[in-house]
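Example record

One chain of 111 residues, shown exactly as stored in the release files.
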Amino acid sequence: MAPTKTKDTLLGTLDLLILRVISHEPKHGYGIARRIEQISDNILNVQQGSLYPALHRLEKKAFIQSKWETGDSNKPIKMYSLTKDGARQLEEEIAHWKLASAAVNTVINEA
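Predicted structure tokens for this chain:
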């Protein structure tokens, strides 16, 4: 049975996914959501109601920064990029995810 598209990302992983996506290059909110969807082969679907509060939370913690730029259609778009603190946080989040996912896999395989 093929996995079905989820309504949202796994609880607690959205910050990690956002930080990882913008670690490569700055992106606007919609671009972040679409990139997560694209990389996950359309398994993870980030809803605006989850994405924008997460972006504001990460910005408030100084893990990301934003700046207004002019988009392709000459409309202003808010671009998000990783800060140095955000890069450190990303490394911590990746380490935590690897540890947690290994533990979950152990339970699944042993149960």
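Notes: The beta strands are 27-28, 64-70, 76-82.
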